[in-house]
Design goal:
Distance between the termini: 61 Å
Strand order of the largest sheet: 1-2
Number of strands: 4
Strand content: under 5%
Order of helices and strands: HHEEHHHHHHHHHHHHHHHHHHEEHHH
Structural class: mainly alpha
Shape: elongated
Helix content: 55-70%
Number of helices: 23
Length: about 500
């Protein structure tokens, strides 16, 4: 390759093409080059490359010290990764070369010993540099990543590869491992529904991230410190998972494909897997910001769609239930992640509370740029939004997690949004509207104004909803139930 000068990378391109099973040539005529291969495959690569890809990727070396045997990467794999990296990424479209490099990387991630700090030091110095080269080079091939992670049909997740990805303690904090996911989010949503290429790319992305998220969610107890051991990988997973948050509720807001809900909405309404995914990714502040800011945005969009359907006389929808389920997931995940990382329960509760406040502010900033989402900000005052998404500040006595929402907050904010959308007869709520602002009193003010209870408001607001559409109270109860289930540990 060096002797070829600027054209050296074309050799890597040739290796990609001749090993790609998706690349085919015209069948030769009788008597003309009968031995010419007509389809890409691993067999078309030079024998030295095939041998490097087929043999066990680790050597075991005696350190002649107390550490004993330690793993060392086959140096040929590092050389091969360097060759691949010199090629054109656009030609990395599902080649056997990339698939085998990733398969070898999976073995290395899982079988490099890291039981002690001494062994980890040896591993980071003798395995990880080569491993990182392999992941960076072959990880540019989104076809190969999909097939290695989710299976060629998208239904056979390679749990062994995913396990190595999320449990190996990378020397670079998981940066190279995270690189294999950076191409997922940009193609997650299909913008042209008639474009089969977009659909195929979106499906591959969805199937890949579903396999990874499902594994993390169902092994959360082992991964509570992922954000510390592999911060860059954790951020990459959050970024690649963010487009699928609404898919997790079973009520997609965009044209994604390939990503099924992590929980059965009928038999697992508490959304255990979804909130466990949030719990793990919330272990890194940057990842938590990426994930939960998007989750807040989706919840706001669900709310706006719910009110919009009523305002246009279409009747209530399941969007309110999706919003509340997601709100419970956000709250539960933040609280559990804080408790995983902070031993003091009060400090953990305070940290989770502050995090939720920061995420809401970030979401509001983004929402203002999106008409379909930003409209809700004009209809619900900031103090109501904060009460809804952040909750009450924890007190020293609240040692068992966040406060449970009684449903008053939901009805309060929904009534205000409907009033500001000019929906319904506001006269029923006159006693609860502050004449100086034209907005509903806060719930605390209502308690002070009405004999220390919210009984009068509850009666009035239920009547207000019922007069708009008799089905709304039932939808509110269902939504509140979804919130309680996704928030609570009770099954």
């Amino acid at each position: 390759m060096s002797k070829m000068g600027p054209d050296g990378g074309h050799l890597a391109d040739a290796f990609q093409l001749v090993s790609n099973p998706h690349v085919k040539t015209t069948q030769s005529k009788p008597g003309e080059f009968p031995d010419t291969p007509t389809q890409g495959s691993l067999d078309n690569l030079p024998s030295g490359i095939r041998q490097a890809l087929d043999k066990y990727p680790l050597d075991w070396v005696d350190s002649k010290s107390i550490v004993g045997l330690y793993a060392r990467a086959n140096p040929e794999l590092g050389m091969l990764a360097s060759i691949v990296k010199e090629g054109n990424p656009a030609l990395q479209q599902g080649s056997a070369l990339d698939s085998k490099l990733l398969t070898q990387a999976g073995i290395m991630m899982n079988e490099s010993p890291q039981q002690t700090s001494d062994l980890k030091t040896f591993t980071n110095g003798s395995v990880d540099p080569t491993l990182q080269q392999m992941l960076s080079a072959a990880g540019r091939d989104q076809f190969a990543v999909h097939d290695v992670v989710a299976g060629a049909d998208g239904n056979t997740a390679n749990n062994n590869f995913i396990k190595g990805l999320v449990t190996h303690q990378f020397a670079d904090g998981g940066a190279a491992a995270g690189n294999i996911l950076h191409g997922m989010a940009p193609v997650a949503v299909q913008h042209d529904l008639l474009d089969p290429t977009q659909h195929a790319m979106a499906t591959r992305s969805g199937e890949t991230m579903h396999a990874i998220d499902q594994y993390i969610a169902t092994h959360s107890g082992e991964l509570t410190h992922l954000g510390q051991t592999s911060p860059e990988l954790t951020k990459a997973v959050a970024e690649a998972s963010a487009p699928y948050i609404s898919d997790m509720t079973g009520n997609p807001l965009t044209h994604t494909s390939g990503y099924a809900a992590l929980d059965d909405p009928v038999h697992h309404a508490e959304m255990t897997n979804t909130r466990e995914l949030f719990r793990v990714l919330d272990s890194n502040n940057d990842a938590a910001k990426i994930l939960n800011t998007r989750a807040d945005l989706d919840a706001l969009q669900y709310r706006e769609r719910f009110v919009d359907s009523i305002a246009h006389g279409n009747g209530p929808t399941s969007d309110l239930q999706s919003e509340e389920a997601l709100r419970g997931v956000i709250a539960h995940g933040s609280n559990e992640a804080a408790n995983d990382l902070i031993s003091d329960k009060n400090l953990a509760a305070q940290h989770a509370y502050e995090q939720r406040g920061n995420w809401l502010e970030d979401a509001k900033t983004v929402a203002k740029q999106i008409p379909a989402v930003g409209a809700v900000l004009d209809k619900i005052p900031d103090n109501m939004l904060k009460q809804l998404f952040v909750g009450d500040a924890p007190t020293p006595e609240a040692t068992h997690g966040i406060a449970i929402d009684s449903g008053d907050t939901l009805q309060h904010s929904l009534a205000q949004q409907l009033l500001n959308s000019n929906v319904g007869d506001s006269s029923r709520l006159t006693d609860f509207i502050d004449p100086s602002t034209g907005q509903l009193y806060t719930l605390d003010q209502m308690v002070q104004n009405h004999d220390g209870t919210l009984a009068d408001f509850r009666t009035a607001v239920q009547d207000y909803f019922y007069r708009i559409d008799g089905k709304i109270p039932g939808f509110i109860n269902t939504a509140d139930d979804a919130y309680m289930k996704s928030l609570s540990d009770d099954k």
